Amino acid sequence: MKYFTKKLWADIQNEKKYEETRDLWDNAVSEYHKQFEGLKSRLPVDVYEIYKQYSLHDSRIVSLEAVNYSPIKRSNKSKRSNKSICVTLKISIDDNILIFEYKNVTDINFKYSVENQKFEDINDNLGYIGYDELTEKNKNYLMHEFLLSTGNTIEIIFKNVKVFLG
């Protein structure tokens, strides 16, 4: 996460650090929205509008499915599969289900641990989404990152995405 880091999120929730962190937080929000506006030409209009309309803060991941994904590292000499990875992510927000279909996925990074969770969070599955960032990875790919309330993270690097209400 470039804008909403774990440290910034923890500091803004800490009563003792809130005042000194508020300007940093406001700056992160402003910078994130500015870079997001720059992605407008890279996203289908309907996808861009859904991203703008819905904040995923406090929403829950219902399911995450990767198709044609093989976590085994291949050597540079081995032939890469022609199959493209597709990821479907369903998120419950308010009374809606948002379905994200990521196509031409190059990487899925999922960092999950219960070591640093509070006891009451352990039975909360992945936790709720604290913040997410949709950013440019490079000129060909975008990246969608999720910081969860449990401190776990999900990162999806992709070329195309569809988003719709389920």
Shape: globular
Rounded average pLDDT: 86
Number of domains: 2
Portion in beta strands = 35-45%
Count of separate DSSP helical elements: 3
Helix content: 10-25%
Following the backbone from N to C, one meets helices and strands in this order, namely HHHEEEEEEEE
Instruction: Please state the CA-atom Rg, rounded to the nearest Å.
Output: 17 Å
Low-confidence residue ranges:
none
Measured between the Cα atoms of the first and last residue, the distance is: 27 Å
Organism: Ruminiclostridium cellobioparum subsp. termitidis CT1112
Protein name: DUF4085 domain-containing protein
Structure in words:
- With 166 residues, the protein is α+β, with helices and mostly antiparallel strands.
- It folds into two domains: 1-37, no CATH class; 43-68 and 84-165, no CATH class.
- It has three helices and eight strands, in the order αααββββββββ.
- It has helices at residues 6-12, 18-37, 45-53, and strands spanning 60-67, 85-93, 96-105, 107-111, 129-136, 142-148, 153-158, 160-165.
- A four-stranded antiparallel β-sheet has the order 1-2-3-8. Strands 4-7-6-5 form a four-stranded antiparallel β-sheet.
- β5 (129-136) and β6 (142-148) form a beta hairpin.
- It is globular and about 50 Å long.
- The relative contact order is 0.19.
- The model has no long low-confidence stretch (mean pLDDT 86).
